[in-house]
């Protein structure tokens, strides 16, 4: 990047992370000012994320164009419509909403038609040269939000309950004090219960517990952070070490032997913090990889074995 004149303040033109919930992350490309955002994202991450979102917007524009043509060619489009998630006229879970609420959605034409469809159209509308009416933009934003709440999010909740059990109130303890000096401390962090549930089962394995004792530990202490921590808390009563904003604090105790992450809410800065201690960092998702973490990819067919492997490594 080159400023228009030597007097230009780099903070006014440095790459912004427009998607950041903590504000637009700015870094100084000359190396004189901030080199990372609040979350630890550096210039490479910021630029890559912004570029990928631009690519997604462009792909959505082409895909939405194709969707329109597929709808016109309805007589021969049945197979093609499957690829666009268009078998249903609306997201099925919408039927759970109160009748009066559904009538409001219908009135404003914001009943979600498909989970991926609404996101794709939203990216298309916000692409350069497309929708320039703030009212129609916000209406599509509402429809996109409904496709999440009454689509993807609700389906994820239902399927998690089917696979792992319905949550119930359970007594437990929370905060960094749940880490134990005489045990192997493993922290799970992220959102995917497929990972955390398998790690939970591995931590209860007699073979691994016996192995921990041969290394001088009393046992294996599994605790959670953020959303996957809540999943374990409400289904298994497993202690919660803290929330998203406490991740670095928990690592800085120096008591964590391993942190296993999947995706969402994992800040880039946790790698650097963990590097100050003996903590082993493990990433498990192809969608969320970190340069300084050991990558052990979990899939439904191998998650049980992978969980045993990483817990053994922690011990």
UniProtKB/TrEMBL annotation:
| Record GO biological process | generation of precursor metabolites and energy; response to hydrogen peroxide
One of the entry's Gene Ontology molecular-function terms is:
anaerobic carbon-monoxide dehydrogenase activity
Disordered: annotated segments: 1-29
Q: Name one Pfam family in it.
A: Prismane
The protein in question is named: Carbon monoxide dehydrogenase
Bias (Low complexity): 10-22
| Domain of life assignment | Bacteria
In its UniProt entry, the species of origin is given as Desulfosarcina ovata subsp. sediminis
Key words, A-Z: 4Fe-4S, Iron, Iron-sulfur, Metal-binding, Nickel, Oxidoreductase
């Amino acid at each position: 990047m080159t400023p228009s004149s030597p007097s230009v303040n780099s903070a006014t033109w440095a790459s912004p992370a427009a998607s950041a919930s903590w504000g637009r992350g700015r870094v100084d490309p000359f190396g004189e000012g901030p080199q990372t955002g609040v979350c630890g994202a550096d210039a490479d991450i910021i630029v890559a994320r912004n570029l990928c979102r631009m690519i997604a917007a462009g792909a959505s524009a082409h895909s939405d164009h194709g969707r329109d043509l597929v709808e016109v060619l309805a007589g021969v489009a049945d197979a093609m419509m499957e690829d666009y998630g268009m078998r249903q006229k609306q997201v099925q879970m919408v039927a759970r909403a109160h009748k009066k609420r559904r009538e409001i959605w219908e009135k404003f034409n914001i009943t979600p038609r498909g989970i991926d469809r609404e996101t794709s159209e939203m990216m298309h509308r916000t692409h350069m040269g497309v929708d320039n009416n703030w009212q129609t933009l916000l209406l599509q934003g509402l429809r996109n939000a409904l496709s999440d709440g009454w689509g993807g999010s609700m389906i994820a909740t239902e399927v998690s309950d089917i696979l792992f059990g319905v949550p119930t109130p359970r007594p437990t303890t929370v905060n960094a004090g749940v880490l134990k000096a005489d045990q192997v401390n493993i922290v799970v962090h992220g959102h995917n219960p497929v990972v955390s549930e398998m790690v939970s089962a591995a931590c209860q394995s007699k073979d691994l517990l016996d192995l921990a004792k041969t290394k001088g530990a009393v046992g294996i202490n599994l605790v959670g952070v953020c959303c996957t921590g809540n999943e374990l808390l409400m289904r298994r009563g497993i202690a919660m070490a803290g929330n998203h904003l406490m991740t670095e604090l928990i690592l800085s105790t120096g008591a964590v032997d391993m942190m296993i992450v999947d995706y969402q809410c994992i800040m880039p800065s946790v790698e650097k913090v963990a590097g100050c201690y003996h903590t082993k960092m493990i990433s498990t998702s192809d969608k969320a990889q970190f340069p300084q973490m050991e990558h052990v990819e979990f899939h439904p067919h191998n998650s049980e074995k992978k969980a045993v492997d990483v817990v053994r490594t922690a011990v």
